[in-house]
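[job 4471] stage=fold_predict status=RUNNING
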Amino acid sequence: MSTSNSENESQSRLYNPYKDLNPNIPVKTLYNLPTSPEFLFHEESLAQRRSWGQNLTFYTGCGYIAGSVAGGGKGFIDGVRAFEATDTLKLKVNRILNSSGHAGRKFGNRLGIIGLLYSGLESAMVEIRDTDDVLNSVVAGLGTGVLFRAGNGVRPAAVAGVIGGVMAGLAVAAKQVMKRHVPI
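[job 4471] inference complete, writing structure tokens
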């Protein structure tokens, strides 16, 4: 029985998917994939910015993640401060997890909404003005602050608007400094 198996194996040949490849050509050049972004229309390649959908996803996601991490840290500290002398280890861990989850969720949602408002306003400004400059970011930051605090009254909305405009201006200025002085 073993003889018939060995005869069948010698008569059949296993498939080798690499048989047609030239061994002198390196594998890296086998698939010449482009490293630059590909665009469907030429007009898309002229714009050096993300689309409104990419901005929406990026700013909202970054805001939510940053807020969740910051809120989780604050919740951890609050949970440790809430320890009582009679708490067991299980109860201490439970306090930390509950307070971290609550604060992380709260901060994450707030910063996610701020990112959502900012991306929408910035994309609207670019569409309306048909230019991409610092003014769009500052106005979007100002509008985000006003909209985020509009339910609290006129004065808190105005203060939040000024803070949002200044923060957006500082972020754009820091980005320009980083582009100029940090080789990436």
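[job 4471] summary: The first helix runs from residue 2 to 11.
[job 4471] exit 0
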